[in-house]
Write a structure and sequence with these properties.
This protein is an alpha/beta fold and 369 residues long. The chain contains eleven helices and 14 strands.
Length: 369
């Protein structure tokens, strides 16, 4: 996951490096735990007519926003740009604060982030997504996954014949990554040292919402792509049916890790401003959208722990004292199974209405400037 600056210069990891990352490399800010941050309560502000001065909007350059949601127990809130409606975490956290949002247990255990059954499902869906990526780039092309994490998409891309590269800022995220992936760890994508016009495809899969400078990441993706190359950007859809219905309970708000919340219009504006030509938009994600309906529904129930189902499925919890009572755990599972089919149908309907809970957009770098 990309979250800003770390303490080292660009480092290329070989197979042994990637497989032998130790706890001595722990990121700054271990005072947070995964459960601490998933359970943060979010509430709507009393009136969304309050206007605040903010940092310059990375999409439109405006610096005024309406207060939207409060992150209870923190100094942060979510505000919407009055011009392009981009949601932002405000005030923007410092680099050290951002690092503290990603404790070691965020990345799972030994390359697996979820309990065994869920992990297998996630890997199957990732393989399906990788086939989409492979079809979007040149056959056997060179592809970079920015914020590659444990590399489950890159594993499938390597199987499909692509030359796979991964970029990360945290060594912890790379545990269990496929040895075929050429990994670089650096402060930022710009400091990774990739040559210009090097890649056929750059994958920004749920990355831009985490970075302090999303437009800067897109500009660097433009630079390192070959003419005719593609960038594939996926983010939660802040203007979706799911986001509108869920409000403060929306699972994909994920405060304070998500620094920005993109409506479709803002995402497209930022991509085209950099110079990419949007060629397709996709509103269905089997991995994120149905689960988002279920978890957001549970978050609306006042007696249920916020993001409790997601936290319960997180692999790290299997090695700790269970965070919830047996009664709560049974309710979480019962709700999951009851809502599984309806949430899938809602996700399909939202996709048909072009209002999916997540959006991934394919942009192409023109052959000539």
């Amino acid at each position: 996951m990309i979250y800003g600056a770390c303490e080292s210069n660009a480092v290329r990891l070989n197979e042994n490096d990637a497989m032998s990352i130790s706890s001595a490399d722990a990121d700054v800010g271990a005072e947070h735990t995964v459960q601490d941050l998933y359970s943060l309560k979010v509430s709507a502000v009393a009136s969304d007519s309050d206007i605040v001065r903010t940092a310059t909007c990375p999409v439109c350059g405006h610096n005024e926003a309406r207060r939207k949601y409060l992150i209870n127990g923190t100094k942060f809130e979510i505000v919407n740009c009055t011009q392009c409606n981009l949601g932002s975490l405000w005030p923007l956290p410092t680099g050290n604060e951002i690092r503290s949002f990603y404790p070691e247990d965020y990345y799972g255990d030994g390359g697996s982030k979820f309990s065994s059954v869920i992990e297998r499902v996630v890997r199957m869906i990732a393989a399906r997504s990788a086939l989409f990526v492979a079809r979007s780039i040149r056959r056997s092309g060179r592809v970079l996954d920015v914020g590659c994490g444990r590399g489950i998409t890159l594993r499938a891309l390597a199987d499909a014949g692509c030359e796979t590269h991964g970029f990360e800022v945290s060594k912890h995220a790379l545990r269990g990554i496929d040895p075929r992936v050429q990994v670089t760890v650096a402060n930022s994508l710009a400091q990774a040292g990739y040559p210009g016009g090097h890649f056929d495809g750059v994958l920004l899969w749920h990355v831009l919402e985490h970075v302090p400078d999303p437009s800067g990441v897109l500009r660097e993706a433009w630079r390192i792509l070959k003419p005719g190359g593609v960038v594939i950007v996926a983010v939660p859809n802040y203007s979706s049916l799911q986001a509108t219905w869920s409000g403060a309970a929306w699972f994909h708000l994920d405060p304070p890790r998500h620094l920005y919340h993109f409506p479709i219009t803002a995402l497209e504006q930022m991509i085209t401003t950099v110079g990419f030509v949007p060629i397709s938009r996709h509103h269905f994600s089997l991995r994120q959208n149905p689960f988002g309906w279920i978890q957001s529904f549970q978050n609306r129930l006042p007696w249920m722990p916020r993001n409790g189902l997601y936290a319960m499925l997180h692999r790290i919890e299997s090695n700790r004292r269970k965070p919830f009572t047996l009664a709560i755990r049974l309710q979480l599972w019962l709700c999951f199974w009851i809502l599984a089919l309806p949430s899938l149908l809602l996700s399909i309907l939202a996709a048909l209405l072009r209002s999916g809970a997540t959006i991934h957009m394919v942009g192409r770098k023109p052959l000539t400037n």
